[in-house]
């Protein structure tokens, strides 16, 4: 007789139906899609491959039940799978960094419009690089460009280094552990940053996935959400090359306060580009 705890084969349709119900009850958005993503990960396939599966074998069934419990406790899907997509890249993630968001791709779109020469030998700096996703996305679009990513967290810098190798870009960039751009010598044709910008009092109101699992240091923008921008306003003019641009991510409602800070620091605003939600997201500037 089998032990009651021994994993058994499971009908995938029934498994997905039950998981969807449980995920919906836990307040997970798009529960049906999330259930399918979990099943695909457990089965070692993708959503298309999942269509060819009727039954999960015992080992995959056990894995699915384990990772379903993690998702029910609001652990981010990217942490469960260990990676996520950004731009044209697949990047590894960890609790040391923010999970790349689609909104941040707005910065890459802005760069492409303001620097139209794809063969330009750009020198790029990404301040607070996290997973390295912004810098690496730009390098894929500009094959002659080179770059430096900085992060105060050594675990983040190591992760960004791995992501550069993962995407075949290690020869064109260095990921360094430092505070902002300490010890970095310009000039740079392009400076990128997605800094911490959530006002401290607002952190507790963020989604459980964010509050429980993403690093507060990468989110907390101080009392007014502007601490990081003040630091950037002080250093960007000295790092930008003549004709170079800086592109920063903005938080909700910061499309007036941050440009004012940057203008006071000696930068000229070229554009505030909205994301798909019509929120001013990418601030483009030059000296």
From TrEMBL:
Record key words, sorted: Methyltransferase, S-adenosyl-L-methionine, Transferase
Binding-site residues, S-adenosyl-L-methionine: 128-132, 151, 180, 194
Binding site for substrate: 194-197
Tagged with keyword Transferase: yes
Class of the enzyme per the UniProt entry, highest EC level: transferase
Catalytic activity: L-glutaminyl-[peptide chain release factor] + S-adenosyl-L-methionine = N(5)-methyl-L-glutaminyl-[peptide chain release factor] + S-adenosyl-L-homocysteine + H(+)
Gene3D superfamilies, A to Z: DNA helicase RuvA subunit, C-terminal domain, Vaccinia Virus protein VP39
PROSITE patterns: N6_MTASE
Residue stretches making up the Release factor glutamine methyltransferase N-terminal domain: 15-82
Organism superkingdom: Bacteria
Protein name, entry field: Release factor glutamine methyltransferase
Annotated source species: Komagataeibacter europaeus (Gluconacetobacter europaeus)
């Amino acid at each position: 007789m089998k032990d009651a705890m021994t994993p058994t084969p499971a009908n995938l349709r029934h498994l997905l139906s039950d998981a969807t119900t449980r995920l919906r009850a836990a307040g997970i958005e798009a529960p049906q899609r999330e259930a399918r993503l979990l099943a695909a990960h457990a089965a070692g396939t993708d959503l298309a491959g999942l269509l060819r599966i009727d039954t999960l074998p015992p080992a995959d069934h056990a894995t699915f039940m384990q990772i379903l419990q993690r998702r029910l406790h609001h652990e981010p899907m990217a942490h469960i799978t260990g990676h996520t997509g950004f731009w044209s890249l697949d990047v590894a993630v960890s609790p040391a960094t923010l999970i790349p968001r689609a909104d941040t791709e707005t910065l890459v779109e802005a760069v492409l419009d303001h620097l139209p020469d794809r063969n330009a030998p750009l020198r790029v700096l990404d301040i607070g690089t996290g997973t390295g996703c912004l810098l690496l996305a730009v390098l894929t679009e500009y094959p002659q460009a080179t770059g430096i990513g900085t992060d105060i967290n050594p675990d983040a810098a190591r992760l960004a280094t791995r992501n550069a190798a993962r995407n075949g870009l290690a020869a064109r960039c260095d990921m360094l552990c430092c505070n902002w751009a300490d010890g970095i010598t310009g000039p740079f044709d392009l400076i990128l940053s997605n800094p911490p910008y959530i006002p401290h009092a607002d952190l507790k109101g963020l989604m459980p996935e964010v509050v429980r699992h993403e690093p507060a240091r990468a989110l907390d923008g101080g009392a007014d959400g502007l601490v990081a921008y003040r630091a950037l306003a002080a250093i960007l003019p000295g790092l930008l090359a003549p004709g170079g641009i800086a592109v920063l991510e903005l938080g909700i409602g910061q499309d007036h306060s941050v440009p004012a800070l940057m203008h006071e620091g000696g930068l000229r605003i070229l554009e505030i580009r909205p994301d798909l939600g019509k929120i001013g997201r990418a601030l483009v500037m030059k000296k």
